[in-house]
Amino acid sequence: MDFKVAVVFQLCTLLQGIISEVVNLEELNKGFCHKDSKPVRVALRCDIHNATVTNETSEDLFVQCSKMLKGDVHCHSGRHDRINGVLEYNFTFDHSWHAGKLQWINYTCDNGTQFSESLRLYPCLSGFTAYGTHNGTHVNIECKHILFNMSKGISIVDNSAGNHLITCLNRNQCHPQYKGHPNGIHGFIREYKPGSGFLCTMDGQSIEVDLHVDNTIQGTAKTGSQPEGNGGGHLVSYLLGIFSHFCVTVMLKYTVINV
User: E strands within the chain?
Assistant: First the structure.
């Protein structure tokens, strides 16, 4: 095999392990509210010999699949569609245990090749309230989530610099020192510079703070509906898709040449 072709083969094999195969990832990235139950669909890349799903917070097998003697795949707490190669299972989200954690989908192909996919478990966007008003010199921000008391803390982030301006672990424990709110951060005032932007973040999920000009520093709430800060992720997925197509093209041409 030509050295350049061999390099392409190696790169393609390496990238196979990082291109996401979670079919309904866009929907899952909108997050889970407490006790939400959603289906997870994973497109497997081969005829599988076995598969497992585990959560970062526990070593217990959440889903376990094994190939039987007749060739069918039997799954505990899940279902494998042999025709389209999709593993599907329902997952119920507990905010205290799962928010911001990873879920791992591991499987072994009949030829012995092993793959591992990860799924980040985000809290629901619909639980956020993030708004702020400014008078040109100062800004007043509120950052709340209905599951704040079950979270690991809520923060206001300077979107331009990436700095955490304030983090509250609970209503009585904020850094820097500040009086919190039962649902998060209320009435946080700081100096404002033209063009400034802010994020409200909690357990890996975030939403942009909707800012309005108001000399009395009062505003109207904005409730989250779409994920924020994922533009880079979409670009990476797009570029990986192009490279994957290139890999397939190169492999097919190499196969034809050597037939």
Answer: 37-43, 48-55, 58-67, 73-76, 79-81, 86-92, 102-109, 114-120, 128-134, 138-145, 154-158, 164-170, 173-175, 184-191, 198-202, 205-208, 210-213
Top-level class of domain 125-213: mainly beta
Q: Could you give the residue range(s) of every CATH 2.60.40 domain in the chain?
A: 31-122, 125-213
- Residue 218 gets the label, from left (phi > 0), alpha (psi -120 to 50) or beta, of beta
Q: How many residues does the chain have?
A: 259
Q: Does domain 31-122 have CATH number 3.40.50?
A: no
pLDDT per residue as tens digits for the range 187-231: 888 889 888 999 999 999 999 999 999 887 654 444 443 333 333
pLDDT, tens digit (0-9, with 9 covering 90-100), for 71-90: 889 999 899 998 899 999 99
